[in-house]
Specification:
332 residues; alpha+beta; Protein Transport Mog1p, Chain A; nine-stranded antiparallel β-sheet; 12 helices; 9 strands
Length: 332
């Protein structure tokens, strides 16, 4: 005979089962294996995995980078005839000595590279962005001053400036071969420049060869200046000693102008000013003028009625006059 459990035993068993269930649930919620665990080991770090947090520094760097020089800014930063004064005037073309004495080759790679850079006026390499140039002639001594502004990258410009600094030592004196196989004696030395821009290098190049069958010596001041990320290149000289004071003045004025041009905000587009005497209805079409709407006057019934009667009487009189005229014609 089976004995039924007592009510007290049933209550104790239910209480024990409830306690075991609670402990199991708590263990699962903490670690799944009863381990109290560290929550940082189970949950990924949101800040480390957030793409927004990693992209923010890159976006800030992009916004902080200066905008590239535009063609309009390059033209606005050029020198003018008024900056140099007399005896300078806008150039009328390349001087005769340019091809005769600058278009030469050298056995040394660096010296030949320098001659090519002077001939093409690319002391800092070929510009990859905006570029503007201006030229001036000195009618007293027959010299020329060529000035150009171009966009650049700071690291590339500084690398090229460092190469130019080695020229007075590497190419202090060498021999080049000009057009027709004429040998030329070339000299290169450093020339001082004003504290214009952020970095700079000046050289004086002299080459002695033949021009129109006669011996001639060409001497040029060469200058390259970095202003921020942009660059200025200048050549000044001719068959006489160059006027270095004009080189200094051109660089001082030019560097300040380029910096100011980059700092000034772009001018807003100009809105044409309309003449106050011009009717706004006459501007849309040059060949056809829209009719101007006439204001409506309040109706006056009595006056309109009277005007209608007058108009009818006038019509009757015209008809009577027409009949009289017809009768007169028939009579004749």
């Amino acid at each position: 005979m089976t004995r039924r459990p007592s009510p007290r035993a049933v209550r104790l068993l239910a209480s024990a089962l409830g306690t075991v269930t609670l402990l199991t649930t708590a263990a699962c919620s903490l670690g799944g294996n009863g381990d109290t665990g560290n929550s940082s080991q189970r949950r990924p770090d949101g800040s480390a995995a957030s793409p927004t947090a990693s992209a923010a520094p890159a976006a800030q760097q992009a916004s902080a980078a200066p905008a590239a020089l535009t063609d309009a800014q390059a033209r606005g930063a050029l020198l003018t005839g008024g900056d140099l004064g007399a005896p300078w005037a806008p150039t009328e073309g390349a001087a005769l000595w340019r091809d005769a004495l600058l278009k030469a080759k050298a056995d040394d790679a660096d010296c030949g590279r320098l001659l090519d850079a002077v001939y093409t006026e690319e002391l800092l390499g070929e510009p990859s962005g905006a570029r503007a140039a201006a030229g001036f002639d000195d009618y007293d001594q027959g010299g020329q001053l060529h000035y150009q502004v171009s966009a650049g990258h700071r690291a590339d410009v500084d690398k090229r400036l460092a190469w130019l600094r080695t020229m007075p030592k590497k190419c202090a004196r060498f021999t080049a071969v000009g057009p027709g196989g004429t040998k030329q004696e070339v000299r290169v030395k450093e020339v001082g420049l004003p504290a214009a821009g952020d970095a700079r290098q000046g050289l004086r190049l002299s080459t002695r060869g033949k021009l129109d069958g006669a011996r001639a010596t060409l001497t040029l001041d060469l200058a390259a200046v970095r202003v921020g990320d942009d660059a200025i290149v200048l050549t000044n000289g001719g068959l006489k000693e160059p006027r270095t004071d004009y080189t200094v003045r051109a660089l001082e004025v030019g560097a300040d102008r380029l910096k100011q041009t980059r700092e000034d905000p772009a001018a807003p587009p100009q809105t044409p000013v309309r003449d106050a005497s011009q009717s706004p209805t006459t501007s849309p079409s040059p060949t056809r003028v829209p009719a101007r709407p006439q204001p409506q006057r309040p109706q006056q019934p009595q006056q309109q009625e009277g005007q209608g009667q007058d108009w009818e009487q006038a019509q009757d009189q015209e008809q009577d006059q027409g009949q009289d005229d017809y009768q007169d014609e028939n009579t004749y």
